[in-house]
């Protein structure tokens, strides 16, 4: 059973192939949330300035299978794995996929915070940055 599996967390960044309209993002999100809820996957998706940043967390095999599909998705390119680790606690317990559009300054701040600027960083710290950002939205 997938419920017995270790929790895998992945944070990646990517670039949207073209600017996505709100309704296109809503459609992506609706399908993603439905799928994730069935598969025990949670996380956060951010879209800012034509870029995506996503945290995926869930049973190892489910997250690995989903990430393989996401990497092939033609709606984005240059998918870069920033952080990947097994065994950390789940942060976005209540979210089959939290979502926020962010402005350019916020994007920069979060990119640095998760280590996407090349600084080596623990995934637990990066998850904390995303959790704090989300909590601050209220
Ligand atoms: C930035 C981005 C994030 C995505 N996040 C998810 C997700 O969290 N869950 C999900 O099921 N699909 C997500 N997708 C969609 C998948 O890439 C894929 O289209 C979907 O899983 C259906 O795959 P299939 O057409 O091979 O069945 C995302 C796509 C993009 C571009």
UniProtKB/TrEMBL annotation:
GO terms for molecular function: blue light photoreceptor activity; FAD binding. InterPro entries: Acylphosphatase-like_dom_sf, BLUF_domain. Residues 7-98 form the BLUF domain. This is BLUF domain-containing protein.
């Amino acid at each position: 059973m997938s419920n017995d599996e270790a929790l895998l967390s992945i944070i990646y960044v990517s670039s949207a192939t073209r600017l996505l309209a709100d309704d296109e993002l809503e459609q992506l999100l609706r399908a993603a949330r439905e799928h994730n809820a069935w598969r025990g996957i949670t996380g956060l998706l951010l879209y800012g300035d034509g870029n995506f940043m996503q945290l995926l967390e869930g049973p190892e095999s489910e997250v690995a299978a989903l990430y393989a599909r996401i990497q092939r998705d033609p709606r984005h390119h240059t998918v870069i794995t920033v952080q990947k680790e097994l065994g950390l606690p789940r942060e976005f317990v209540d979210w089959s996929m939290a979502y926020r559009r962010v402005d350019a300054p916020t994007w920069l701040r979060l990119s640095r915070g998760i280590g996407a600027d090349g600084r080596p960083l623990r995934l637990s710290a990066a998850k904390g940055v995303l959790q704090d950002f989300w909590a601050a939205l209220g």
